[in-house]
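Progress narrative, Year 2. Work on Lipase from Paracoccus litorisediminis advanced from sequence curation to structure prediction during this period.
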Amino acid sequence: MVLVRELAVLSIVVPAVAALLLWAWPEPARPHVPVPQLVSVRGEDRVMFYADLVPLQEGLKPLPLLVTGRASNGAKGALLQEWPGFHAEAQFIGTAVSVRFEDNVNRWRVLIDNGRSGMIELSRPGVNDLRIRGLTAGAHHIRVEKISESSMPTSFGGILIDGDSEALPAPRARPRLIEFIGDSDTVGFANTALRRDCTEDEVFSATDTSRSFGPKVAEALDADFRMVARSGIGLVRNYEGVTPQSTMTTRYPLALPSDPAAGRLADRPADIVVTALGSNDFGSSFTESEPWADHEALSRDFAAALIAFLRDRVRENPGAIQVLLAFGEYGKPLLVPYQQAEAALKADGQQAVLITLPKLDRSACFWHPSAGDHDLIASWLTTAISPLVQ
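Result:
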């Protein structure tokens, strides 16, 4: 009888304690909003430099650039860009440099001497020059990288100097280029967030493409990276079946995904191509207007489209290693097409490798991969690719 009473008490106390702990446990912090328009951080040399946004300056001289990422010609020598991960680098001798923007959409990071001499982060800089002064006299390297996802094309007006500085040749490209093809998981959508429920402003604040798995893999392999990725996009169907005419199959060739008429500037063939599509194809239910009755039918079409898509990438990047990155959480409807695609490429005589990811934590906004997930994916990719490039 005593035992029964004790069990009865425990049956009440344990759930109550659990509920109390759940109530008292602090919720993850929300992403900080709004993002400051300009933040400067001193580098390791601790030299005080000055950075401010000013109206477009006259008489500046453009530096030769190493540009990585899809782009189209804009006005007055500017570059129009929209795909994520766009970045440009230059070198100069002097104490001052400027970066020109026409952009009310994106976040940017500017690194001087790989951050040793300073770092600046910008949010929606507008039609302005970022003017940087007070650097140590001598030679400097500057890198300007977009870390947010564009919803439309914006203009990058280059890196410029005045008459007191001297231009140096553009930096030499790294020995390898890796192209990452994917969706929001590749972009790094809200990857720095610590919670799943987010506002639009919080997503903007928490997205940092430079901390997604692609740039991490490139850094580990002493390579550069190019991204052809977009949130919501799929290979044969987009998330929830929206804009069926704008899947990766039709958007991939474009310089600007929202402007099919824009001319695409020539870019370097990739040495490694990582394709990570399918989350949006299989991650939502069908609408009445879509042609698939079930995931089995979609899987068959996805397989055929994936093989054709990858063979196009082989033709554009001769000799490149084709890395197929499959998100295992979507099961056989996605995994079987990736297995068939790997087999087809190998039968064609191509070097191909399939990596199947385990179930991810997905604790960032709207169930997107967290920073820890991106670290995990980068580790798996680096481990798989490293033996192939030695």
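The chain has two domains: 38-167, 176-388. The chain has nine helices and 19 strands.
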